[in-house]
Amino acid sequence: MSATENRWGDLRARLISAVVMVLVAAIGIWLGGTVFTVLVAALTGLMLWELGSMTRLAKAPPHDRSALAVAGLGVLCLAFAWASPWMIGAIVLLIPALAFALTPRRDRGLAAVWAAGAMIAGFGLVTLRNDAGMSAIVWIVLVVVISDVMGYFAGRILGGPKFWPAISPKKTWSGTVAGWIGAALVGGVFWASDMAPFGIVLLSALVSFAGQMGDIAESWIKRRTGVKDSSDLIPGHGGFLDRFDAMTGAVVLVMLLSLVMHLPFPVGG
């Protein structure tokens, strides 16, 4: 296989999987309500299961029941948090992280941080859909997707110096910066359409960076646990943690910023 074929060898599988995920996500975002909530809860549970499987002890069986247990716990905690006052819900969201921290596994601290991030992101997606509307979800999804797509193609076409080779050997500076530009362009479209103030442009680039940090953080835990992908559930993309690591970082940043300032979310929907 030539270098060019190897470079683009996974593109077909990635595109097919991406189309399916986009269709499912679009239906969930459009319908909102129970459908979107169930979709996000299932996604969060799958991410926790993958995280638990990745960090299981070497002597543990491949299908470790503790990973399935913590995934189920995460879904229950999300349901409770959505139905509870804010402060109580915030505490409940951290229970799966505590479970990772207190059970025997590799990199318990790192796994606990990731579990907390996944729970906050899951809670945040539904909260944003309910409180800020469909346009806010469409915006953050577009920022993450366009940032990833532009980074993917720019990194493979332009190449160049690596962004953080010790943790993510494939990520380049050209792809990273292209992701920021793509995200800013998404924000620019919302601003030009009078759907959001100009601040959405800067926020989009910042959210893109947070998504890239989520990607790098997931690459770090994979390198430390010695796995290539979080699972093989999504052809061409690995697992759900591989595919939604950037979304996790992006939503966590949005939720944290929303605690201290008013964000220029798009309106409508």
TrEMBL record:
<dbReference type="GO" id="GO:0004605">
    <property type="term" value="F:phosphatidate cytidylyltransferase activity"/>
</dbReference>
<feature type="transmembrane region" description="Helical">
    <location>
        <begin position="69"/>
        <end position="102"/>
    </location>
</feature>
<comment type="similarity">
    <text>Belongs to the CDS family.</text>
</comment>
<feature type="transmembrane region" description="Helical">
    <location>
        <begin position="246"/>
        <end position="265"/>
    </location>
</feature>
<feature type="transmembrane region" description="Helical">
    <location>
        <begin position="173"/>
        <end position="192"/>
    </location>
</feature>
<dbReference type="GO" id="GO:0005886">
    <property type="term" value="C:plasma membrane"/>
</dbReference>
<keyword id="KW-0614">Plasmid</keyword>
<dbReference type="Pfam" id="PF01148">
    <property type="entry name" value="CTP_transf_1"/>
</dbReference>
<keyword id="KW-0444">Lipid biosynthesis</keyword>
<feature type="transmembrane region" description="Helical">
    <location>
        <begin position="20"/>
        <end position="49"/>
    </location>
</feature>
<keyword id="KW-1003">Cell membrane</keyword>
<keyword id="KW-0472">Membrane</keyword>
<protein>
    <recommendedName>
        <fullName>Phosphatidate cytidylyltransferase</fullName>
        <ecNumber>2.7.7.41</ecNumber>
    </recommendedName>
</protein>
<keyword id="KW-1208">Phospholipid metabolism</keyword>
<keyword id="KW-0808">Transferase</keyword>
<keyword id="KW-0594">Phospholipid biosynthesis</keyword>
<dbReference type="InterPro" id="IPR000374">
    <property type="entry name" value="PC_trans"/>
</dbReference>
<feature type="transmembrane region" description="Helical">
    <location>
        <begin position="134"/>
        <end position="153"/>
    </location>
</feature>
<keyword id="KW-1133">Transmembrane helix</keyword>
<feature type="transmembrane region" description="Helical">
    <location>
        <begin position="109"/>
        <end position="128"/>
    </location>
</feature>
<keyword id="KW-0443">Lipid metabolism</keyword>
<comment type="pathway">
    <text>Lipid metabolism.</text>
</comment>
<keyword id="KW-0548">Nucleotidyltransferase</keyword>
<keyword id="KW-0812">Transmembrane</keyword>
<dbReference type="GO" id="GO:0016024">
    <property type="term" value="P:CDP-diacylglycerol biosynthetic process"/>
</dbReference>
<comment type="pathway">
    <text>Phospholipid metabolism; CDP-diacylglycerol biosynthesis; CDP-diacylglycerol from sn-glycerol 3-phosphate: step 3/3.</text>
</comment>
